[in-house]
Amino acid sequence: MRQLVCKTVPIAITAVALAAVLLWGSQPLTPSEASASPTPTASPIAIPIATPPSNGFTEVAKAVTPAVVNITTVTADKVSGSREGQEDLRDRMEEFFGGPNGPFGPRGFRGPQGPDEPRGHRGGGQGSGVIVSPDGYVLTNNHVIDNAREVTVTLPDKREFKGKIVGTDPKTDLAVVKIDGQNLPTVAWGDASKLQVGEYVLAVGNPFGLNSTVTLGIVSALGRGRMGITQYEDFIQTDAAINPGNSGGALVNTKGELVGINTAIFSQSGGYQGVGFAVPTSMSKPIYESLIKTGKVVRGYLGIGIQDLNQDLAKSFGITDAKGALVSEVKEDSPADRAGLKQGDVITSYQGSPVEDAVALQRMVTRTGVGTKVTVNVSREGHAKELGITIGEQPDTAKVAKAETGEKDYAFAGVAVQDLDRETAKELGIKGKTQGVVVTAVEPDSGADKAGLMRGDVIREINRQSVKSVKDFEKVSSAVKKGENVLILINRRGASLFLSAKV
Question: Is the pTM here over 0.85, yes or no?
Answer without folding.
Answer: no
